[in-house]
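Example record

One chain of 121 residues, shown exactly as stored in the release files.
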Amino acid sequence: METVSCRYDIEGLAKDMEVDLTTISTLYSEYFLEMKENIYKSETLCAKEDYASLERIIHNIKGTSISLNIKDIYYTSLSLDNQLKNNKCEQATCGINTINELFNEAEKDIKEFFHQNGIEL
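Predicted structure tokens for this chain:
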């Protein structure tokens, strides 16, 4: 079966990791669950103004996103991570909202990619 392209380089990642799309789909499924939890935690920590803990969660989002070639979330979380490290917390809520919006789009696009390639997540 010929694979279908996606704005995220899923095929390239699978090739680099020397695994098939079915195997890589498991990583994305785990990423989706982890991101939902991390976004919820981020919103809660931001509301409590616990910016030190929020920075750790954002750092985790940044790392897992780049490891799966989800660069739009990576760059947004990188920016927010840098702001938090520099005690510029005024835009934290906005940054979390942007990450959440990007995540929702990414999840939809990635699930569609796998669906078109005969893999359900």
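Notes: Helices lie at 10-17, 21-47, 51-67, 71-85, 92-116.
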